[in-house]
Specification:
A: about 280 residues; mainly alpha; MetI-like fold; 2 strands; B: about 290 residues; about 75% helix
Amino acid sequence: MYKSYHAWFFLLPALVLLLVFNFIPAIWVILLSFMEYNVIQPMEWVGLANYIRLANDAEFWNALKNTLYYWFLVTPALVIIPIFVAVLVNQKLVGIKFFRLTIYFPFLVSVVVTAIMWGWMLRSDGVINYVLSLLNLEPVSWLTKKSTAMPSLAMITIWQGIGYYMLIYLGGLQAIPNELYESAELDGAGFLRKQWHITFPMLRPVIFFVAVVSTMAAFKEFTLMLVMTEGGPLGATQTVVYLIFEKAFRSLDMGYASTIATVLFVIILALTILNRRFLDRETS
Amino acid sequence: MLGTVNHRRAKTLYRRYGTKVVSYALLILLSLVMVVPFLWTLSTSLKGADEAIFSFPPKFIPEHLTFENYKAVWKTLPIPLYLRNSLILTFFGVLFPVFFSSLAAFPLARMEFKGRRFIFMLVIATMIIPVEVTMIPIYLILNKLGLIGTYAGVILPNAVSTFGIFLMRQAFLSIPREIEESAFIDGANVWQIWWKIMLPMVRPMMATLAILSFIASWNNFLWPLLLLDDSNMYPLTLGLYKLQGVFVSNMRYIAAGSIIALIPIMIVFISLQRYFAETAFSSSIKG
């Protein structure tokens, strides 16, 4: 029926685009990491110089530290909280669909609008500080203080991500056979015992999946930092990708920026392989 | 006797309604946390020029409710222009990934040809290359192609989605063989089989992919930011970002602009909600 040129005809547009915007860039970024390039002068091979510079660059280590801090604030929260939310919205209650949609909606909002909204909430005379004042607490300038800037951004990410991971967990929950809960009930298990002995063990692969996905997302985040804090105050919210962005497009230090990007690439690849290994073990 | 009966009754009452009450309380609390930023922005956008935005205690209900800000934004700021630009970019941002992914996925699912496994592996491998890593070379390539400052530059890096190919392939795989065979016997050519027979059968998956692409391109910020210099070409996201810096004094306008940016997302979300659970599950395969 089909000839093989048919296949290539259908594949051609996608393959050209993938080649130009995925494969070539993935190889080129590694090559660029060994070069010096500032857009104006031609590229120059500098060997490992960029990597040596990276190893001694306090700014890079600070960005890596910040990224790990952000990850530490965001990922455990986004792995754990949505499980409870999913259990909550997995009940047969009137209006449950409305609640699911409401909780999911923030995930669809652009980073710019999110930044605008939360920027106002977090102002020193904003709503959050008003709530604190009700509790007799001092107002905090959330985004301009070194110690609170990153936790504030992490909180926004958690706010935005809960609904998304909730839906993923909900899919996992609905795949658990109801008989398990019923027989546990016959054995006299209460609500909490059922969650502990059935829900958590059965959700294990989904939990791992969410951990990997949210970890990768945390390692790649930078637009929130860009639009809310510009990496400040004093570099406190400068993440690895933010540094790539800044070096490449503000300092036009494309070679060195590619070196940082290559290091990030290695981290992401390692996480992906880890994920695969685990999934293979789970399914076999 | 009576005491224990009452006690038992209270217990069954609690069993029946207690968890419900607790559940609703938690759900309402959680939903409030989710919507307060939106409500606050909406309220700011409806406040009159003489009304304080940041007062202690904050006023959620505007004292002099007015739509003046929306009118002003529409007339004095380039919001209508930005909206139009966003619509153009989003149109292609939905059309291209859906079209190219549906094209490429068809032979991967339905045809036998040399190199099929290899191409599919390649597509899967591409899924793990994040744009944050490759944005520098992509920028340089767009520069070489003369696409800096053009919509083509903004659209092309996202014109095909490997994840979309993956999704569409799954959909095509589920179609029974006999349908194609009888079409061949009726004398249909390959193109007709794809367009007239196959595509209508994978419409739900196309809708899912279209929604994912819609959200992604409506919210696209990175490429407009990197590529567009001419402020007449800004989409709404980039426009709001730039305005926010300039119009610090008039937050009411920024709030109104933000609400305008949210409306299309809300419309799509509410009218196509049944697809959204699907999109979340399917994007969860991605990792």
